[in-house]
Amino acid sequence: MKIKVFQKGFNFSQDGPGNRLVYHLQGCNMACMWCSNPEGINEKGSIMMSLDTIDEACLKGAIIDGVFDAKLCKGCDRPCLENKDTSLSLSYQEYEFDDLIDETISCKPMFFSSGGVTFTGGEPTLNLPLLTRLLKELKAQDINTAIETNATHPDLMSIIDYVDYLIMDLKHYNKEKHRNATKVSSALIKRNIEQISQIKPFLLRIPLIGGFNDDLTDAQGFIDHLENVNKENIKVEFLQFHEYGKHKWAQCGLTYAMTGNEYVSNERVKEFRQAFENAGFKVVNT
Ligand code: SF4
Question: Does the pTM exceed 0.90?
Fold first, then answer.
C-alpha cells in the first residue's frame, strides 16, 4: 500500500511537542469551506494549475481564460498528467511504506526537544489500517508519534495506544451548522471526544470562524456540548481564521466560499479563552 503525501516539512512545537516532521496525508472526509489545504481533500489527489498553465493544458476544456473548473475533471482519466509540458501537476507524492519509515529514521537527530513525527491531513485516519501500521512501526523505532484528526473515525479508539500526542478538532457544537460547513455529521466527533477524554490527554483544537462559531453564545454552546468530557485530560486551543491557503482553491479549480469577513479579533479569542477557563478547561495560549 502506497502512502500519498501532499505536503511535508518540519515545524517546532506546532503539531505536537518539540521539532517534528509533519506528513500531510492526501484525502479528507470533510470539505470545510475555510480549509487551508484544499489540495488535500480529494482522496484521488487534486490537479493543480501553476502560473504558467495555459488553457490548452487541458484538452477537455476544463480551463477557460485561465480559470480552472475542477468539476469538469470528474470522470476524466487525467491525460494532462502524462504530458509533462502542461504545467499541471498532481497534489501528492507517493511513498512506499518502508521508504517513509527510513526517512523518519534518518531524521531522528532532528527530533530534538521531545520531537518526532506527526501525521495530519487531509484526514490521516481515512486509511486507518495504514495509519496504524505507520504508528506501530514508528513506536517500534522509538520515535515519538502524533496525529491531528477531525475525530470522525468510528474506530479512532483503536489507535490511541500508538499515539503519544493526540490532537482532535471540533468545528461546531450545532449538528446542522456542523454538517452544512463540513458535509459531515458531528455525532462521532462528540462520542470520540467524550470517550477518549476518559482515558488519555489530548489537545482539542477549535477553529474560530467569524459568523460561523465566534459569537459569545457559541462559546457557551461549545462548553455545553462538552459537558460529558473529563476536563482533566483536555487542553483547548483556539485557531483564528486565516486565508493562507486561499490561492490554492483557485489552483485546484475549486470555488472559495469565504468572503474575507470571517476574521476574528484577538479580543474575541481572549473572551473565548476566559469563558473556557471559567468553565474549568485548561486553555493553550498560541
Ligand atoms: S484531469 Fe486534466 S485533462 Fe482531465 S479534465 Fe481535468 S485538467 Fe482536463
Answer: yes
How many whole angstroms from 23 Cα to the centroid of ligand 1? Answer: 27
Q: What are the pLDDT digits (tens) for 195-212?
A: 999 999 999 999 999 999
| For ligand 1, mutation pick of 78, 81, 82, 254 (most atoms within 8 Å of CB) | 78
| Contact between residue 163 and residue 139 where contact means Cβ atoms under 8 Å apart | no
The set of long-range contacts for 110-113, using a CB threshold of 8 Å and a minimum separation of 24, is 110/10, 110/19, 110/21, 111/18, 111/19, 111/20, 111/21, 111/143, 111/144, 112/18, 112/19, 113/12, 113/13, 113/17, 113/18, 113/19
User: Which protein residue has the closest C-alpha to ligand 1 atom 5?
Assistant: 73
- Residue 13: what residue type? S
Residue with cell 483536555: 234
Kindly give the distance from the C-alpha atom of residue 60 to the centroid of ligand 1, in angstroms, as a whole number. Answer: 6
pLDDT above 70 covers a percentage of the chain that reads 100
Pairwise CA distance, residues 24 & 10, whole Å: 11
Say how far apart CA 105 and CA 134 lie, in whole Å.
12
Q: Is the C-beta atom of 76 inside 6 A of ligand 1?
A: yes
> Thinking of the domain 3-46+91-283, which architecture would CATH place it in?
Alpha-Beta Barrel (3.20)
Query: What residue spans define the domains of the chain?
Result: 3-46+91-283
Residue 58 CA, closest ligand 1 atom number: 8
